[in-house]
Amino acid sequence: MDDLYREMILDHYRNPQKKQLVSPADIDYAEDNPLCGDFIHLTIQLDENKVVKDVGWEGNGCAISQASASMLYETLIGKTLDEIRSIGKDDILEMLGVPLGPVRLKCALLSLKVLKAGAYGLHAWPGEEDE
Amino acid sequence: MHTETLLDVATIRADFPILHQDVRPGVPLAYLDNAATSQKPLAVIDAMSDYYLRYNANVHRGIHKLSEEATVAYEGARKRIARFINAASWREIIYTRNTTESINLVAWSWARTNLKPGDVILSTEMEHHSNTVPWQMLAGQTGIEVHYVPVTDAGVLDMTAFDEMLDERVKLVTIMHTSNVLGAIQPVRQIADAAHSVGALILVDGAQSVPHMPVDVQALDCDFFVFSAHKMLGPTGIGILYGRQEILDAMPPFMGGGDMIKRVELSGSQWNDLPHKFEAGTPSIAEAIGFGAAVDYLTKIGMEHIHSHEVAVTAYALDRLAEVAGLRVLGPLKASERGGLVSMVMEDIHPHDIAEVLNHEGIAVRAGHHCAMPLHHRYNLTASTRASFYLYNTFEEIDRLIEGLYKVKEVLVL
Ligand SMILES: Cc1ncc(COP(=O)(O)O)c(C=O)c1O
Prior knowledge:
The complex is a heterodimer of chains A (131) and B (414). Chain A is of the alpha+beta class. Chain A has one domain: Alpha-Beta Complex (Sufe protein. Chain: A), CATH 3.90.1010.10. Chain A has 5 helices and 3 strands; from the N terminus they run H-E-E-E-H-H-H-H. Chain A has helices at residues 7-14, 63-74, 81-85, 89-96, 102-120, and strands spanning 27-33, 38-46, 52-60. Chain A has a 3-stranded antiparallel sheet, with helices on one face. In chain A, strand 2 and strand 3 form a beta hairpin. The two termini of chain B are 32 Å apart. Chain B has 414 residues and is an alpha/beta fold. Chain B folds into 2 domains: 9-31 and 302-412, Aspartate Aminotransferase, domain 1 (Alpha-Beta Complex), CATH 3.90.1150; 45-300, Type I PLP-dependent aspartate aminotransferase-like (Major domain) (Aspartate Aminotransferase, domain 2). Chain B has 14 helices and 17 strands. Helices cover 39% and strands 17% of the residues of chain B. Chain B is globular, with a radius of gyration of 22 Å. In chain B, the strands form 5 sheets. In chain B, strands 4-10-9-8-7-5-6 form a 7-stranded mixed sheet, sandwiched between helices. In chain B, strand 5, helix 5 and strand 6 (145-149) form a beta-alpha-beta unit.
């Protein structure tokens, strides 16, 4: 099963990191994918220099969507909003390290979509055609 | 323990080259996604390529040999399809693109001209989106109301509620024959009688019934009956609207263009006779011919035999699925009360993950809402995993499904 769900994905799926909302939150955003029911709610606390002080999230859905949220959000602490802006689709794919078909790609990228839309507004997210 | 059935499955499988492949080295394909679309036997593929290789031409137009041959094949298929569902006449068989287009045709042509604001279309909570959305669109534009008969917790239509909701305001009852999620088979004849008793017509979505069991539209006494070729061994791009002749005769055309007219003057046109009135433009000729070949293939094997094979396979699947702890089957639990498909949910495991692990084991199932979001929401689900069977599926494939589900638990249960 290695090539399908790498051990690391399963680890994050079974033991998600930072899976508890923080409050008060400077960034608070949730979104779901109605077609498959994946759901992610993200909260972020910033310090006075716009550096991420803490993150927390909640959600449910498939292993890929939930593991990608756990893996991505954990790495945000200590990053500036500008650094976060440069995180792209390829970073997520590299982080997951498994080949994904078009349907699963949507699951994998929901965490990034929620992050970008929460931090910069929905316009910061490329349209469906660009994904 | 494997059961015997009336079908010679090994011989049947030899007619379907696509089934004989490995999904990855050493892992053969088990195709259990027949409710989405079925595979096609060589007889169908050959009939279509024969048309393109030997007598490709437009129909109803040419005087030349190829066109005549194409017209005979195209119209011949229609006659065999009419017999297959026991329509009173081939004129009642309208070629469309699929089930979805057939329903939209009725919504546009029949409902728009016959219904008025305040009239009610009675549908159900379990319908495929193709039998929900066209009526919603119609209601949004016309003031016609759509009401939905609920399903019970046990996964069947609530017939008590149906009886209560059926009154003189209802002008059309539109309902699926076999549910593509619950597997439940609706008592169509009983529903048709009830609908007629208040002066309503009945449309039956047979997309999941005609492929799997004998269907006689006259015995069911339905006014419209719709289905798709691609779920019954035929090609994509062709489906059927059956309608009672006097109803179709009174309906205006759906689309305008060539073939659907008798005479065109700039001041106006005169519509063609049935079924051509509803078939504007060059149709899907190869697809109709392929559909005819599919119906011949099914007829030769016998729909009774196919049905009993599927009941046996489904009964075996239900038995074995009951062994898997934490797994819940949607819909009625008796194989004799359902079509050859089983939708399931498993603890907290997302259906995408189930399908992904099963795919790794070579097993093709469908994960999602199966175009029935309202039904899933009714049961507080966003999605389910569906295994659906056909005449070429084996008991051994069910065993592999069960092994695959154990693998799912091993990988994904927390
Ligand atoms: C019960 C039912 N109705 C309608 C449809 C729609 O069929 P089609 O997509 O061929 O129009 C399907 C299949 O997807 C179905 O299962």
